[in-house]
Amino acid sequence: MNEPAPQVIKMYAAREEIYPREIKGKYVSLRWLFVWLTQLVFYCTPWLQWNDRQAVLFDLGARKFYIFGIVLWPQDFIYLAALLIISAYLLFLATAVAGRVWCGFACPQTVYTEIFLWIERKFEGNRSARMALDKQPPSFKKFAKKTGKHLTWALLALWTGYTFVGYFTPIKVLGSEAFTLSFGPWEWFWVVFYAFATYGNAGWMREQVCKYMCPYARFQSSMFDKDTLIISYDKERGEPRAPISKSKQQTGNGSCIDCSLCVQVCPTGIDIRNGLQYECIGCASCVDACNSVMDKIGQPRGLVRYTTEHGLVNKYTPAQIRERTFRPRVRIYTAILGLIVCAAAASLYLRTPLKMDVIRDRGSMGREVEDGMIENVYRLQIMNTSERGHTYKIRVGGLDTLTQVTADQVVVAATETKAYPIRLRVAHGVGKPGSNKIDVELTAIDEPSLHVKEHAVFIVPR
C-alpha cells in the first residue's frame, strides 16, 4: 500500500511584486503633506543653531541631550520616559479614534516608501510601464533605468543615514569628516546601517515590513471597537458588482463596477471590498480611487470611505459618526493624555537647572585638628545644567560653630560638572558622638533664585 506523499505547509507566502498605481485625491495630497512636513523636520533640524551650538543634539559621549533651550542630563531620564509614554499614548489614542491613520500618513516606512515609489516612477514610468519593463529581457535601456533608480535610492539612503548620525555627532563636524572620509568606526557603522535599512525597507521590502515585521499590525485590532473610524467598503450599496454598460449602468446592479482600481492603488495589494484586513495601513488611496470612478460614472462618492462599523450598519450621518467617534472613552483618554502632558511640561518648566551631590570623604573620617576642632572633608559634585556660567555661594548649617575652611565660592561654567572639595569644622564638644545632620546650600550670586540645598552628615569621633 502506497503511503500518501507528505504535505508541505508553507508558513510564508512567496512575495508577489506590487505595482501601486498613481492616483490623485485629497487623501493622497494629505499624505504628501505629511511626507514634506516630516522630512523637512528630519533633514533640517540638525542644521538649526541655538546659542552657538546645534539646536538638537544627543551627545552620548558627553551624556548631554540638547533640545533647543533645554539641556537634559542622565539624571533627567524621567523626561525621556515621559516623552515615550506620551508618544505611545498618542499612538493608541489615534488608533482608537481613526484606526491605522499613523501607518497610512506619518509612519517612516510609509513616508520613505512613498518617496522611493516617486523616484521609481520618474525612472521607470507609470504602473503599466513598470510592469512591462520587469517582463522585458535584459537590455541596455532596462539596465540604465534600473541603475539610475537604485543609485538615486542609495544616495537618498546615505543622506538619510548621515542626517540620522547628525543628531548624535554635531552635523558640521560630521560634514568635515565626510568630506575627508575620516568617520569614526561607530559613525561609519550607523551611517551605513541606517542607509541600508532605509534602502532595503523602502526600496525592496515595502509592504512586507507592514505585513510581517511590524508588531503594530498584529495588535491594532485590540484597540478597535465598532465606533473606530476605518476604511470600509459599503457592500449594501456596492453589490452586486457589474461592469458598467456603454450607455448606462444596468438596473439592479450595485454601484461597484468592478474596475479593481481600489486594488491597483493599494500599497499592500489588498482588496478593501473583502472587509477590514490587518494588512490595510489606512492610507485611503482606495478612497481617492473609488471617488474618482464614482465622479466619472455620475454616482455619489463614498462607496469606499472612512466610516465606522456602527455607521455602516445603522446608516449614520457624518455628524452622528463624529459624535460617536469622540465618545466618552476617547474623551477620557484625551483628558488623561492632557494631564500627563501638562504634568511633564510643568515639571520641565519648574525644574532647577542646578544639581548638587554632597559626598563625604570616606577615606578621611572625622578627625581632630589644631585648636581641638573636629574636621570632616566632603566633595561637592555640582552640575550646572543651564547654558550660562555662574558663581555660586556655599553656605553650611545645622550645627553650632560649623564653619567652612575652604573658599565659600565656586565658579561652574555652562553645562559643566565640577567636583569641588570643602572642609568643614566644628568646635570640640559640639554635636553628639557619631552622625550629626548638616545642610549644604548652593546659591548663584548673580541669580539668587537659582539655589539648591542638600543634606549630609558630620561625623564626631566617639
Largest sheet: 5 strands, antiparallel
Q: Which class do the helix and strand fractions yield?
A: alpha+beta
Count of separate DSSP helical elements: 16
User: What is the count of distinct domains?
Assistant: 3
Subunit arrangement of the protein: single chain
Give the strand content: 15-25%
| Residue windows where pLDDT falls under 50 for at least 5 positions | none
Give the number of DSSP strands: 16
Through-space gap between termini: 97 Å
Shape: elongated
Classify the helix fraction into a percent range.
40-55%
If you compute it from the alpha carbons, what radius of gyration comes out, rounded to the nearest whole angstrom?
Answer: 32 Å
Furnish the topology, listing elements before pairings:
Layout lengths: L25 H19 L4 E2 L2 E2 L1 E4 L4 E4 L2 E3 L4 H22 L2 H5 L2 H17 L2 H9 L4 H26 L5 H10 L4 H21 L1 H7 L2 H4 L10 E4 L1 H4 L22 H4 L20 H13 L6 E4 L1 H6 L3 H8 L2 H23 L3 E7 L6 E2 L5 E11 L5 E8 L5 E2 L4 E4 L3 E11 L7 E11 L6 E10 L2
Antiparallel strand pairs: 1-2, 3-4, 4-5, 6-7, 8-10, 9-10, 10-14, 11-13, 11-15, 12-14, 15-16
Helix pairs in contact: 1-4, 2-16, 4-6, 4-8, 6-8
